[in-house]
Amino acid sequence: MAETDQERTEEPTEKRKQQAREKGQVARSKEMGTAFVLVSAAVAFLWFGDGLYEGMRSVFRQFFELDRQQAFDPTQMSKAFAIAFGEIITPLLIIFSFILVFTFFGNSWLGGINFSWKAMAPKFSRMNPLNGFKRMFGTQALVELVKGLAKFLVVAVSAFLLLSWQYDNILQISMGQMPNMMENAVDILMWMFLLMCCSIFLIVVIDAPFQLWKHQKDLKMTKQEVKDENKDSEGSPEVKGRIRRLQMEMANRRMMQDVPKADVVVTNPTHYAVALKYDDGGPKAPVLLAKGTDETAAKIREIALEYDIPLIQSPALARSVYHTTELEQEVPQGLFVAVAQILAYVYQLRMHKKGKAKRPKKPASDLPIPDDLKY
C-alpha cells in the first residue's frame, strides 16, 4: 500500500514524548513489576525470615503459656498483645520495606519515575460498554491472553522441574523429627518459591522490549502532525516572513536616519549605494553608515541630495564596500586607499564651495581595489 500522510510513519518528536509523559503515557511492563515483587518477597523471607520465625515462635509460646486467670484478665491480655506486637513488628517492617524498595525499582525501571495528574483523572470513555468490548476483544487483549498462557506454562514447567529435583528431599521430610522437620520443609518451600518466581523473568525478557517497541509505535506521528508541530513551535512561514519583513523595514528606517550624517555616498550609479563617514576624532578608518541596492539605493541617493551630501560614482568601489562591510563597521584595510581618494576629493570640493580652493578633479575611474575585494 502506498504511504499516505495519514499513516504514522514519522518518529515522535521530543515535544510529543514530553506531552505523552505529562499524560502518564510511558513504557511499562506489568510482568517486570510482578517479577520484582515476587522475587523480592522470596529473598526477603529467605534473608529475614528467621527473625520473623523467632518472633512468631515467641508469640505462640507466650499465648500458650497463659493460665486461665490471665486469659480472662483484660489487662494481662492487653499486655500480651503489646508484647506480641513488639516481637513481630521489627522483622515485618524489614521484610515489607525490602519488598517496597524493589517493587518501586521494578515498576519504574523501564519507563522511569513519572507522576501525572492527568493519568489519575477519571476517564468516562472507559465506562462506555462498546469501548469495553473493543478492549476485551482487541489486539491488546489478545497479547495479554498470550502472556497469561505463557506465564502459566512457564510456572507449571518450573514447578514440575523443581518438584522432580526436590522429590527425594520432600519424601525424607516425613522421616525427620520436630522442629528440624518443619525447618527443612520451610527451607525447601522458600527456595522452590524463589526459583519459580525467577522463572517469570523469562516472560519479562520478552515483554519489556515489546512494551518499549509498542510505546514507540503508539507515539509515532503522521507527516501532517509533524508539520503542524513545527508550525506551532517555530511559527508558520507566513508569520515568520512577515516578521522578517517588519524587522528589515525597521532596520532600513534606522539606517536611513544615519544617511544625513554621511560625508559621501558612493554609487554604482543606480544599482548600489553606500554612505560613508570619516571622523578625525573617532575611528582610524571610514565607517559604513548605510548601504543598499535598487530601491534602497535610490532612497539613499534621494536623502543624500536632500541634505547636500556629495554623490560620487564609482561602481567598483560601491560594490566592494557593499559586499565586504557591515553597517557601522570600518571598511576593510584593502579599500583604505580608494576610499581616501574619494574623501580627499569631497574635502577639496567643500573647500571649493567655500571659495578657499580650486575646483578639484574627479577621482580616477580605476581606483586601486585589490582583486580579492572586487565584486
UniProtKB/TrEMBL annotation:
<dbReference type="Pfam" id="PF01312">
    <property type="entry name" value="Bac_export_2"/>
</dbReference>
<feature type="transmembrane region" description="Helical">
    <location>
        <begin position="32"/>
        <end position="53"/>
    </location>
</feature>
<feature type="region of interest" description="Disordered">
    <location>
        <begin position="356"/>
        <end position="375"/>
    </location>
</feature>
<keyword id="KW-0813">Transport</keyword>
<dbReference type="InterPro" id="IPR006135">
    <property type="entry name" value="T3SS_substrate_exporter"/>
</dbReference>
<feature type="transmembrane region" description="Helical">
    <location>
        <begin position="80"/>
        <end position="105"/>
    </location>
</feature>
<keyword id="KW-0472">Membrane</keyword>
<keyword id="KW-0282">Flagellum</keyword>
<keyword id="KW-0966">Cell projection</keyword>
<keyword id="KW-1133">Transmembrane helix</keyword>
<feature type="transmembrane region" description="Helical">
    <location>
        <begin position="149"/>
        <end position="167"/>
    </location>
</feature>
<feature type="region of interest" description="Disordered">
    <location>
        <begin position="1"/>
        <end position="26"/>
    </location>
</feature>
<dbReference type="GO" id="GO:0009306">
    <property type="term" value="P:protein secretion"/>
</dbReference>
<protein>
    <recommendedName>
        <fullName>Flagellar biosynthetic protein FlhB</fullName>
    </recommendedName>
</protein>
<dbReference type="GO" id="GO:0044780">
    <property type="term" value="P:bacterial-type flagellum assembly"/>
</dbReference>
<keyword id="KW-0812">Transmembrane</keyword>
<comment type="function">
    <text>Required for formation of the rod structure in the basal body of the flagellar apparatus. Together with FliI and FliH, may constitute the export apparatus of flagellin.</text>
</comment>
<dbReference type="InterPro" id="IPR006136">
    <property type="entry name" value="FlhB"/>
</dbReference>
<keyword id="KW-1003">Cell membrane</keyword>
<keyword id="KW-0653">Protein transport</keyword>
<keyword id="KW-1006">Bacterial flagellum protein export</keyword>
<dbReference type="GO" id="GO:0005886">
    <property type="term" value="C:plasma membrane"/>
</dbReference>
<keyword id="KW-1005">Bacterial flagellum biogenesis</keyword>
<dbReference type="InterPro" id="IPR029025">
    <property type="entry name" value="T3SS_substrate_exporter_C"/>
</dbReference>
<keyword id="KW-0969">Cilium</keyword>
<comment type="similarity">
    <text>Belongs to the type III secretion exporter family.</text>
</comment>
<feature type="transmembrane region" description="Helical">
    <location>
        <begin position="188"/>
        <end position="206"/>
    </location>
</feature>
